[in-house]
């Protein structure tokens, strides 16, 4: 039995929560994955995994073994990277996840430069706004806006996103263009809510270092960034979003910015990854590349400041 491969298979099963998912992720026959785990459990003399028809979870021994395997595999990868060409030319699959808007409009258009620099890294990119369980879903790194509320993750700040308040021209013709926060009394907002946590987000304005949250009525609530803007274009009310996400709509006149002199607070953008991924050369070079990308002067043309 190849113990290194067995540990790699075992950690992937725990990460993804199933034998089939692990086999697909590692591009191995499912029967081979099952045999490896049986051999590993026999070698150690303990049961590592609890199998049911619906899920696979580690036993107490399995959870302890998993933590040690993660550290060992990360150390091994780092050691090989230090003493091999992989340090300068890392290879393998990097699984990343980011909001659809920033991926489509900012990161993916710039990715050819990353791939030219690191041609042996294959990228698997998820584009969505939902929270991602990095461990269970086998994701190496995510980009997220807002404060990181998960202390178990390492957060690498990238920049602060300038946000804008906007509405459709038709809506503003009906309700008027607000010139002050007092003028919001005659307006309504579109609410954004998280389908996972249930948290709901209204409008925020920064005035003399204080964040004000005016209470506005709402007729529509949505749980996706694209749906949020679609409702705004349809005339359902005011929204607040990072500038890059509405730059095209503003340029084409489909949306209009209001209250520019009273901006929303800037939204921090960070790269997040599990602590044991910090030794991964692939994660390290990708996050370093992101820092370079968002530090480029041209990025400021989209008011990413």
From TrEMBL:
Transcription regulation listed as a keyword: yes
Entries under InterPro entries matching the protein: LysR-type_TF_proteobact-type, LysR_HTH_N, LysR_subst-bd, WH-like_DNA-bd_sf, WH_DNA-bd_sf
Domain HTH lysR-type: 1-59
SUPFAM superfamilies xrefs: Periplasmic binding protein-like II (SSF53850), Winged helix' DNA-binding domain (SSF46785)
Pfam annotation, one family: HTH_1
Protein known as: LysR family transcriptional regulator
Recorded GO MF terms: DNA-binding transcription factor activity; sequence-specific DNA binding
GO biological process, one term: DNA-templated transcription
The keyword Phosphoprotein is assigned to this record: no
